[in-house]
């Protein structure tokens, strides 16, 4: 009797609601399981693949380029040895090494002198330039009134912009490429240009970059990490639509074309990348005028905009729309030993794991939804400033608008600063 008084049977409406809730829960669980299975069966961006065969590697002549500033630690611990190993695998007669060190206050110069000695033993043609001009020397000099690369800032003074400065250094390294082709005796030309950042890498990594799509690319890049699982070079990476990565973790991209290629473990079509190691088809660097590194104009930079020289180079490259720019997800480098080890786990040939992939995909899905207003506002700000710049001058054009961000970057004594 008490049971009948205090426990009324559920109504039909309540039973229907419970049935729908169970169906929704079952549907979500089914979708989740299918999603997990699909992810586990998809291609991995990190299954260790063999380096290209020797005969393929040796058909290309490679111009190896790098700039360094206060990199003694990584030069001595990893970089020098990896470069020497790479040179031997490519063949000393097939490479040229061009390095510029600029005003380091650590032992970078001594580390590069040691590298120079070892390259000499291998018979490698090279140019390693060590300079004493520091950042302080650069920013304290008085520029002429019409010297490009300087800008009036909110600090009430004319300051040296970071990107034109870096572009100048990179172009000095690349000057050797054309000098070798134009010298009167023993002329040399190259098929690929390989830029190496101050990263932990192996010869296998560099060879895989060179062999991306069997060498058919305008440019091919690695992925770089400082604090995994987040990738590092957000300034240069743009997906196939020209958008910045939507998340810092796998599968990174807003564009479905780039995202699906990453999920499949295939070379990823992008508009721009650098990310530690990048290989270029050398052809545009021999054209007249040659492809060069640059920053955006000082006039456009006054609108509080900046773009990486490592992104703009792809926007200017005539081969980009023909052969494409590709990110190779099988090649991951680190700015320290711990970062490199974390993206090359010893217990597994696959990175990221299935669980990390599942989490990353859901983070990407959520970010595509909730970050839409922020992305729209960022794009509107950049577009409005570019339009304003164009309206205030004749025949003004910037081909690398997708590279631009709402920042101003200037050189300072110990590096660079956002203003």
What can you tell me about this protein's structure?
Helix 2 crosses helix 14 and helix 4 runs parallel beside helix 5. The protein has helices spanning about 1-5, 10-40, 55, 70-90, 110-120, 135-140, 160-180, 205-210, 255-265, 300, 310-315, 320-325, 335-340, 355-370, 370-390, and strands at about 60-70, 95-100, 125-130, 150, 160, 190-195, 220-225, 230, 240, 270, 275-280, 305, 325-335, 405, 410, 415-419. Strands 1, 2, 3, 6, 7, 8, 9, 10, 11 and 13 form a ten-stranded mixed beta sheet that branches. The longest helix has 30 residues, at about 10-40. The radius of gyration is 26 Å and the shape is globular. With about 425 residues, it is an alpha/beta fold.
**CATH H-level name of the largest domain... which superfamily?**
Spore Coat Polysaccharide Biosynthesis Protein SpsA, Chain A
What's the CATH topology name of the largest domain?
Spore Coat Polysaccharide Biosynthesis Protein SpsA, Chain A
Helix content: 40-55%
Q: Count of helical segments?
A: 15
Task: Describe the SSE topology.
Layout: H1 2-6, H2 12-41, H3 54-57, E1 62-68, H4 72-90, E2 95-102, H5 108-122, E3 125-131, H6 135-140, E4 150-152, E5 158-160, H7 162-182, E6 192-196, H8 203-210, E7 219-227, E8 230-231, E9 238-239, H9 256-264, E10 268-272, E11 277-281, H10 298-301, E12 306-307, H11 309-316, H12 320-323, E13 325-334, H13 337-342, H14 354-370, H15 372-391, E14 404-405, E15 409-412, E16 415-418
Parallel strand pairs: 1-2, 1-6, 2-3, 7-13
Antiparallel strand pairs: 4-5, 6-11, 7-8, 7-11, 9-10, 10-13, 12-14, 15-16
Helix pairs in contact: 2-14, 4-5, 4-8
Transmembrane segments: 20-39
InterPro entries: Mannosyltransferase_CMT1
Protein name: Polysaccharide export protein
């Amino acid at each position: 009797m008490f049971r009948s008084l205090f426990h009324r049977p559920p109504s039909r409406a309540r039973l229907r609601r419970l049935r729908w809730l169970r169906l929704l829960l079952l549907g979500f669980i089914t979708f989740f399981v299918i999603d997990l299975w699909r992810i586990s069966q998809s291609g991995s961006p990190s299954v260790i693949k063999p380096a290209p065969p020797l005969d393929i590697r040796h058909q290309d002549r490679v111009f190896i380029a790098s700039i360094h500033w206060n990199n003694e630690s990584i030069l001595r611990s990893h970089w020098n040895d990896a470069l020497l190993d790479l040179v031997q695998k490519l063949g000393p007669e097939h490479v040229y090494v061009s390095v510029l060190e600029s005003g380091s206050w650590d032992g970078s110069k001594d580390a590069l002198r040691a590298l120079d000695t070892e390259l000499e033993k291998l018979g490698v043609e090279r140019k390693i330039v060590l300079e004493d001009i520091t950042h302080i020397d650069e920013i304290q000099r008085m520029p002429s009134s019409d010297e490009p690369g300087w800008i009036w800032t909110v600090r009430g003074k004319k300051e040296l912009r970071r990107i034109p400065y870096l572009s100048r250094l990179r172009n000095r390294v690349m000057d050797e490429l054309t000098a070798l082709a134009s010298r009167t005796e023993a002329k040399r030309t190259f098929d690929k240009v390989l830029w190496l950042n101050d990263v932990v890498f192996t010869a296998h990594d560099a060879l895989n970059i060179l062999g991306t799509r069997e060498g058919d690319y305008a440019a091919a890049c690695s992925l770089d990490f400082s604090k995994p699982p987040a990738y590092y070079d957000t300034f240069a990476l743009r997906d196939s639509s020209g958008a910045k990565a939507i998340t810092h973790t796998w599968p990174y991209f807003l564009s479905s074309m780039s995202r699906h290629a990453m999920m499949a473990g295939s070379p990823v079509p992008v508009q721009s990348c650098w990310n530690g190691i990048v290989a270029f088809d050398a052809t545009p660097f021999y054209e007249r005028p040659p492809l060069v590194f640059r920053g955006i104009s000082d006039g456009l930079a006054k609108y509080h905009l900046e773009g990486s020289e490592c992104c703009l180079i792809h926007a200017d490259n005539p081969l980009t729309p023909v052969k494409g720019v590709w990110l190779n997800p099988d090649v991951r480098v680190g700015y320290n030993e711990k970062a490199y080890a974390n993206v090359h786990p010893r217990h597994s040939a696959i990175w990221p794991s299935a669980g990390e992939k599942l989490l990353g995909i859901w983070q990407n899905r959520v970010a595509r939804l909730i970050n839409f207003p922020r992305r729209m506002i960022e794009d509107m700000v950049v577009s409005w400033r570019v339009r304003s710049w164009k309206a205030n001058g004749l025949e003004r054009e910037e081909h690398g608008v997708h590279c631009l961000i709402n920042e101003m970057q200037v050189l300072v004594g110990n590096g660079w600063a956002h203003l």
